Amino acid sequence: MPAAVRKFRRETSEISCCLKYLLFASNVVLWLSALLVLSVGIWAWSEKDMFRNITRLHYIALDPAFVLIILGGVTFLLGFMGSVGALRENTCLLAAYAVFLSVLLIAEIGFFAVAFVLKDKGWIKNQATEGLKAFIRHYREDADQQNLIDWIQEDWLQCCGIDGPKDWDSNNYFNCSSIAIGSREACGVPFSCCRRRPHEQIKNKQCGYDVRKDGYPVDRNIHERGCLRAGEDWLEAHLFCVAIWCVALLVLQMDQILTFKSCRS
């Protein structure tokens, strides 16, 4: 048989039926999940009217709605290429899917490697500090960012500020000088900084008022530890779980690439 005919037959041969539907099913789940995330992100941005007032966004990389849009959009595209490409046996879509997934895998490995190398050089700490500073400065200006930092301080890390409650002085509402303009929150902290009292069902939203004023009682009933140190402590305590999660993510992506290669063999 001529070599050209053999080559043509290899190029037009169907992929394994089992692997085809395995690749299709896994990417449909990914695609639908991404569609949900993307829809939530777009809805959140539309509620804030950000599509017409993008100038209101001060720190776009930290906006939860924007992060959901980017994450959902990239994952949606990836799931679409994988599911439709596998179902239709479209070599162009499958090739694009494999290339896209490989680029993501390489980028993630590079990110983890850089994070490991720079973990003791202060770069990651500086980035986290700048992000928290932006959150604090614009706390009252974006509901999503406000809810996120409240969750970090109250539910996740049980902390307050970057290095401590004094960092809330950089917010116009909580700055002690705002007493002159009538801010009731002046020289205070958000309610998420307060420690929950025993048997307290509903937290008092005014529990952080005046806690940074001179002469306030020593027991302020707020978290005195900063979120930066609390985050470092959390990462050290859960380092093994974080490592397992990262490895599982990389293995899952490698498995998708190997499945694609098996389909084409």
UniProtKB/TrEMBL annotation:
Primary localization class, coarse: membrane
Underlying gene: Tsp26A
Keyword annotations: Membrane, Transmembrane, Transmembrane helix
PANTHER family hit by this protein: TETRASPANIN (PTHR19282), TETRASPANIN 26A, ISOFORM B-RELATED (PTHR19282:SF431)
Name recorded for this polypeptide: Tetraspanin
Cell compartments where the protein resides: Membrane
Transmembrane segments: 21-45, 65-87, 94-118
Highest taxon listed in the record's lineage: Eukaryota
Membrane topology: Multi-pass membrane protein
